Amino acid sequence: EAERTISVSFRGSCTDRGTRIRHTLSELFANFSGSRVVRCGEKSKSFGDELRSSVFSLAPPGSFPTSFRQFEAIQVGALPIVLGDRTYFGGTLWLPFQDLGVD
């Protein structure tokens, strides 16, 4: 099993049905300790390793209200953070693990 060295991750396409959530994630997590949240559309051959090394994985809407990212995360033992269309309104994004002492 991979060591969990990434606190929270996201790597995926920019497809988001007009919600723009995926377009804002990299900026929101730019200063978040241990995160690897990249701009949507940035590809990497090490996507699988990144996901396996993540404690949490962001799963924003994609072509549909949910994305398969949540299932990918569960398959490798990362905890998916499911972001819905109504989770982010252009303000502060609150994630439940921020209060759990996860850095």
Strand order of the largest sheet: 2-1-3-4
How large is the share of residues in beta strands? Answer: 15-25%
Mean pLDDT: 82
Reading the helices and strands in chain order gives EHEHEHE
Determine the fraction of residues in helical runs and give it as a percent range: 10-25%
- Shape descriptor reads globular
Counting DSSP H or I runs of 4 or more residues, the number of helices is 3
Low-confidence segments, given as residue ranges, are none
Largest sheet: 4 strands, parallel
What is the SS-derived class? alpha/beta
Give the radius of gyration.
Answer: 13 Å
Total E-strand runs:
4
User: End-to-end distance, in Å?
Assistant: 21 Å
Write the layout of secondary structure elements.
Elements: E1 6-10, H1 21-28, E2 36-37, H2 47-52, E3 54-59, H3 69-76, E4 79-82
Parallel strand pairs: 1-2, 1-3, 3-4
Question: What would your notes on this structure say?
Answer:
21% of the residues lie in helices and 17% in strands. The protein is built from 3 helices and 4 strands, in the order E-H-E-H-E-H-E. It has helices spanning 21-28, 47-52, 69-76; strands at residues 6-10, 36-37, 54-59, 79-82. A 4-stranded parallel sheet has the order 2-1-3-4. The longest helix has 8 residues, at 21-28. It is globular and about 35 Å long. The model has no long low-confidence stretch (mean pLDDT 82).
